[in-house]
């Protein structure tokens, strides 16, 4: 299979499996999405979705959020991990949104990445899911699968993002990155991986990855 055929195969399989694509993080507007994505760093979406209602019950907009102290926020979000950094970030960015952006989440990568605790991946998720701007946020699932599928060298997430954007059509990025995440969780996880159920890797996967899988299975 050529690289182009592989890419088309991936797209077709993902659209067959996920014609409707659920959004992983519960939110109701760009602000609550931004906070949820920030909280999801090194945590799971399931855990974040349990904690965000408790936080948003007290503050679901920057004006109410700055009325809480950093300690108040930290106490609520402790279960998602990294709470000292995340609570400072949530409080700090809420203040900046009020001071610089009339309380609204800005619609540009540059302005988002200037906010405390907001990196490129968080900005990409918000641009994609809140504003429909083509972006390809790379999480651990996408990074792992792009390597397993021999579509990227796995060097780092920056390279993986470049490769994904180069290979996949821009108009599909916003749906595709979510489809790959769901596929990674269901069929191609890091642990407890069953290659027989992972049709994409089984068909187009990197040979060394497939060989290692069978070697480890025997041992």
Automatic annotation (TrEMBL):
MF GO annotations: endonuclease activity
EC number, as in UniProt: 4.2.99.18
Cofactor(s) needed for function: [4Fe-4S] cluster
InterPro entries hit by this protein: DNA_glycosylase, HhH-GPD_domain, HhH_base_excis_C, Nth
Pfam families recorded: HhH-GPD
Domain of life of the organism encoding this protein: Bacteria
Record field: catalytic activity: 2'-deoxyribonucleotide-(2'-deoxyribose 5'-phosphate)-2'-deoxyribonucleotide-DNA = a 3'-end 2'-deoxyribonucleotide-(2,3-dehydro-2,3-deoxyribose 5'-phosphate)-DNA + a 5'-end 5'-phospho-2'-deoxyribonucleoside-DNA + H(+)
Keyword Cytoplasm listed: no
Annotated keywords: 4Fe-4S, DNA damage, DNA repair, DNA-binding, Endonuclease, Glycosidase, Hydrolase, Iron, Iron-sulfur, Lyase, Metal-binding, Nuclease
Function: DNA repair enzyme that has both DNA N-glycosylase activity and AP-lyase activity. The DNA N-glycosylase activity releases various damaged pyrimidines from DNA by cleaving the N-glycosidic bond, leaving an AP (apurinic/apyrimidinic) site. The AP-lyase activity cleaves the phosphodiester bond 3' to the AP site by a beta-elimination, leaving a 3'-terminal unsaturated sugar and a product with a terminal 5'-phosphate.
Family as reported in the entry's similarity comment: Belongs to the Nth/MutY family.
Protein name per UniProt: Endonuclease III
């Amino acid at each position: 299979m050529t690289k182009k055929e592989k890419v088309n195969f991936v797209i077709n399989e993902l659209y067959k499996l996920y014609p409707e694509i659920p959004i992983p993080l519960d939110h109701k507007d760009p602000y609550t999405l931004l906070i949820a994505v920030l909280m999801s760093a090194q945590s799971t979406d399931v855990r974040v979705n349990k904690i965000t209602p408790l936080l948003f019950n007290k503050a679901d907009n920057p004006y109410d959020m700055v009325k809480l102290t950093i300690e108040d926020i930290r106490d609520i979000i402790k279960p998602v991990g990294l709470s000292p950094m995340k609570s400072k970030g949530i409080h700090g960015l809420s203040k900046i949104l009020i001071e610089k952006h009339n309380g609204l989440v800005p619609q540009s990568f540059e302005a988002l990445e200037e906010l405390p605790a907001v990196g490129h991946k968080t900005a990409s998720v918000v641009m994609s899911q809140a504003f429909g701007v083509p972006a390809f946020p790379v999480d651990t699932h996408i990074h792992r699968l792009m390597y397993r599928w021999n579509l990227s060298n796995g060097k780092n997430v920056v390279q993986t993002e470049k490769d994904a954007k180069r290979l996949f059509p821009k108009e599909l990025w916003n749906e595709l990155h979510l489809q790959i995440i769901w596929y990674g969780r269901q069929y191609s996880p890091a642990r407890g991986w069953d290659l027989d159920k992972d049709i994409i890797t089984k068909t187009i996967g990197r040979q060394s990855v497939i060989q290692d899988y069978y070697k480890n299975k025997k041992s």
